[in-house]
TrEMBL record:
Alphabetized InterPro entries for the sequence: Carboh/pur_kinase_PfkB_CS, PfkB_dom, Ribokinase-like, Tagatose/fructose_Pkinase
Organism encoding this protein: Alicyclobacillus fastidiosus
Domain Carbohydrate kinase PfkB: start-end pairs: 12-281
Name under which the protein is recorded: Tagatose-6-phosphate kinase
Keyword flag Nucleotide-binding: yes
Pathway: Carbohydrate metabolism; D-tagatose 6-phosphate degradation; D-glyceraldehyde 3-phosphate and glycerone phosphate from D-tagatose 6-phosphate: step 1/2
Phylogenetic classification of the source organism: Bacteria, Bacillati, Bacillota, Bacilli, Bacillales
Reactions this protein catalyses: D-tagatofuranose 6-phosphate + ATP = D-tagatofuranose 1,6-bisphosphate + ADP + H(+)
Keyword terms, alphabetized: ATP-binding, Kinase, Lactose metabolism, Nucleotide-binding, Transferase
């Protein structure tokens, strides 16, 4: 089973507009709402790829109920913990004329210690050997920066695949807990390791992370693809040049695509190439999702693998 914990979900509203003019009345051409936040972006990708998934996080109020309904409609198993505070709304503006993207994220709700304990207990009771457990995105107010790391430590006795996609101290503490895989982008990786000032230092730091107990590391590099490494190999995946329409959620789409392919093949390199194709496909689409009827396997075959190191 795939279990995705996105501690700080949101209702994401994506608006398309010609140009966003500050201080003026702006007219939106199209608005589409998604059950969002990084964890639900991962879950939505998995469902698009035909993989069963359960979503965990904190939901409250009218927005929380709307997200639960969206999960139900998408076939995502709703395992969220009910909270007293209201779930956030995030707005994304896509400007047609400027080819520019603006994201306005509300602060997350306040989550009590009791609500945190309830979520953790639910997740730990559900997890079985062989499961993937994804810990993705930010945490809301009241939730400590060791939240993901403590969950990884609590799962040490089980044979599970823990994957972390987070930033700052959340990512730093999670790395110290030795997850099976981390997938930051290059900016998030440099937040934790500011000594990474060149490609050679990046590779050296990745080797150190692997030596210290993380089994697999993928650092996404935007249009340049990604750098992936484990104890067996280190390689770049270079993606084909495409017109990027909306790159938002491409990193989350990468994680969903990776899990879908790894669960089917158990092959790290094949899964990274397929995940890269999923991320590119998302960037080619106006809304944050993989377009229908796109040949993802063909797109994966068009990626180039280069040995690193």
């Amino acid at each position: 089973m795939i279990r995705v914990l996105g501690a700080n979900p949101a209702m994401d509203r994506t608006h398309t507009i010609d140009s966003l003019v500050l201080g003026e009345v702006n007219r939106v051409h199209l608005t589409k709402s998604f059950a969002g936040g990084k964890g639900l972006d991962v879950a939505r990708t998995l469902r698009h790829l035909g993989v069963s998934v359960a979503a965990y996080g904190f939901l409250g109020g009218e927005i929380g109920r709307s997200i639960r309904a969206t999960c139900l409609a998408a076939g995502i198993e709703d395992k969220h913990t009910e909270i007293c505070d209201e779930t956030r709304v995030c707005n994304i503006y896509i400007e047609n004329n400027e080819k520019r993207f603006t994201v306005i994220n509300e602060q997350g709700p306040n989550v009590t210690l009791k609500e945190q304990e309830q979520l953790v207990q639910t997740l730990l009771a559900d997890v079985e050997d062989g499961d993937f457990v994804v810990l993705s995105g930010s945490v809301p107010k009241g939730v400590p920066s060791n939240f993901y790391g403590e969950i990884i430590r609590a799962l040490e006795g089980k044979e599970v695949f823990t994957i972390v996609d987070a930033t700052g101290n959340l990512l730093k503490d999670a790395i110290e807990a030795k997850p099976w895989m981390i997938k930051p982008n290059i900016h998030e990786f440099k937040e934790v390791y500011p000594n990474v000032t060149s490609e050679s230092k990046l590779f050296e730091q990745l080797e150190s992370v692997i030596e210290n107990g993380v089994s697999n590391v993928v650092v996404t590099l935007g249009e340049r693809g990604c750098l992936a490494t484990n104890r067996e190999s280190a390689f770049y995946v270079r993606v084909p040049k495409v017109e990027s329409v909306n790159p938002i959620a491409s990193g989350d789409t990468f994680v969903g695509g990776f899990i879908a392919k790894y669960g089917a093949t158990g092959d790290f390199k094949t899964s990274v190439r397929y995940a890269s194709a999923c991320a590119v496909a998302n960037a080619m689409n106006l809304m944050p999702e993989i377009p229908n009827n796109l040949d993802l396997n063909g797109l994966a075959e068009s990626t180039m693998v280069e040995i690193a190191g």
